[in-house]
Predict the structure.
Amino acid sequence: MWEYTNDVKEHFLNPRNVGVIEDADGIGEVGSLACGDALKLTFKLDKEKTISDAKFQTFGCASAIASSSALTEMIKGLSLDEAAKITNDDIARFLGGLPKEKMHCSVMGRDALEKAIAYYKGEPDKAAEGEIVCECFGVTDIEIERAVRENNLKTIEDVTGYVKAGGGCGNCHERIQEIINSVAGTQHKAEPKPKRLTNIQKIKLIEETLEREIKPALKKDGGDIELVDFVDNTVYVELLGTCSSCSASQVTLKHYVETKIKELVSPELVVEEVAQ
């Protein structure tokens, strides 16, 4: 079960601006019923060329409906130039965040908006220029590269979360990895050397990692974890609930908790359980 924010739930249960503007100035359609998600966005301009009305029709999950509803609210009153600056991250932030596996819903909204603006301006569909990489969901190399570059995606799983590519048969995984590697190679030259974290920064990141990544996973099986202390790059924690009495607790501690903290905070950290 995905963990949705209250804003996502509200826009899903009470979506705004559902429907189609018959004499629309802008029309953008993305996705397909065969792929599981589809969105049609229409908008109307007033005499000052600002978006006076916007409506949507969406076939998809709660995140898709909520993202579409949020988008229509966001663009009302904006000029086309202002609307064109809206990113998928802006849509996700408007909703208080989306599960990473559902970020493709915000991307779908951004893409529909771009197509609607291009429709009004009489411009060609840029997405159609690329080479199809993911046959299951009809995603091009241009779309994948853009998602990787804009969102700093690192894995095939990340790409699937943002544009769905790779979420079907898996035949495109090798090509997706090539695109990730290619983008990483061009970005690497411009990346500054990472700054050394202070102990206070490490503690803050450790706490955030426990709350955001580790605790939700442990709680699914009745367990929990608490930060006890941090000394000389050693993270002292207490396992709670079912984790405290589980025979595999040390495996969980080292192969999951420690691995996550090394990945998301610093590779020099180690995790130890405090004696009970």
